[in-house]
Amino acid sequence: MTVRWGLIGASTIASEWVIDAIRATGGEVVSVMSSSAERGETYAKENRIPRSVTTLDALVNDAETDAVYISTTNELHRDQAIAAIKAGKHVLCEKPLALSLEDARAMVEAARAAGVVFATNHHLRNAASHRAMRDAIAAGRIGKPLSARVFHAVYLPPHLQGWRLDRPQAGGGVILDITVHDADTLRFVLNDDPVEAVAFGQSGGMGKQGLEDAVMGVLRFKSGVLAQFHDGFTTQFAETGFEVHGTEGSLIARNVMTQKPVGSVILRNAEGEQVLPLEQRNLYEAALEAFHNAVKGKGAVSASGADGVWSLATALAVAQSVKSGSAVQIRTGLGE
User: Fold this and answer.
1) CB neighbours of 42 closer than 8 A, spacing ≥ 6?
2) Calpha distance 87→66 (Å, rounded)
3) CA–CA gap between residue 254 and residue 238 (Å, rounded)
4) Coil, strand, or helix at residue 281?
5) What Rg, from alpha-carbon coordinates, does the chain have?
6) What's the mean pLDDT in 70-95?
7) Which of 163, 278, 315, 322 has the smallest CB count inside 10 Å?
8) What residues have CB less than 8 Å from 39, skipping those under 6 apart?
9) pLDDT-based confidence at residue 265 (cuts at 50, 70, 90)
10) How do residues 105-139 score in pLDDT, each as one tens digit?
């Protein structure tokens, strides 16, 4: 069975990454929705998509569409996802799932009730580096994990700036754009859930309307692990990284908080240093292969709706801590 896709949003991430990943894993893109007919037609032509439409109803009620990919601005996700679910479509939604936990949970519950596949597009958990780290920790190669550090301060390129820097009502700002990724990647690698956040925000000149363009903070996990994170839109010359330190060793990864299948992981312990072998693969292709298999009843998605709720809950707790100056408990409402 070929999974036929409709794109809700004529987005950059779809054209740069997701369309190719759909096609590389046996899917087909049959339509795209844009509120601008001219933009939609141009986008469809440039990306070899047969149809463009201007309304949500036209896309989700297309009998020739099996699944939708949602990559519009964040405040639109809930209504678009629920409309697609009601139409019987499987859904892959960009992060964050929504702007509130109530909305995110409603999306997940609607998909569960309808019996359709619902996934969050958290691509970083598909990186070979993070999977190797998760496997090493599970195998006891660093002993008991005690702490972690994530360096995810980057420079937001001009073609991606726009609403991320000046539209708080759309979920702009670095926390809902990048910290959600840290939260999901930490949960995945550590196989653990965060329970508390404390953070400080910064406005370094790019963010407008009071939006933070950088944030630093600490998450505390159920196991007691403490994880530092530094996220930013303003950092032009740093590298990204991910470290986990345990009682018997450390895992040190560099250039791994990225969309590209690159980076390295070193295991350092009493015996010295060892470079872990990585089977690098396109992160989005891994996600779409898992999604297509889930639609066919042959496995689970890479990142579920519940995973998306967890990352949103963490990011919202970080944002609340920035505003209040206090530590904030992380609760998803999923029964944890």
Assistant:
1) none
2) 10
3) 11
4) coil
5) 20
6) 97
7) 163
8) 10
9) very high
10) 999 999 999 999 999 999 999 999 999 999 999 99
Residue 33 has pLDDT above 60, yes or no: yes
Q: What stretch(es) of the chain map to CATH 3.40.50.720? A: 4-123
DSSP H stretches of helix in the chain: 12-13, 19-24, 37-46, 56-60, 77-86, 101-114, 128-138, 163-166, 174, 180-190, 283-295, 305-324
**The two three-digit tokens of residue 159, written as one number:** 């073609």
Fold category of 125-284+312-329 in CATH: Dihydrodipicolinate Reductase; domain 2 (3.30.360)
Q: Which CATH fold would you assign to the domain 4-123?
A: Rossmann fold (3.40.50)
Domain with CATH 3.30.360.10 in the chain: 125-284+312-329
- b (16+ CB within 10 A) / e for 122-149: bbbbbbbbbbbbbebbeeebbeebebbb
Q: What is the pLDDT of residue 80?
A: 98
What single DSSP character describes residue 32?
E
The DSSP element (H or E) to which 31 belongs, if any, is strand 28-33
Q: Please report the sign of the dihedral spanned by the C-alpha atoms of residue 159, residue 162, residue 164, residue 170.
A: negative
Q: Is the peptide bond before 96 cis (omega within 30 degrees of 0)?
A: yes
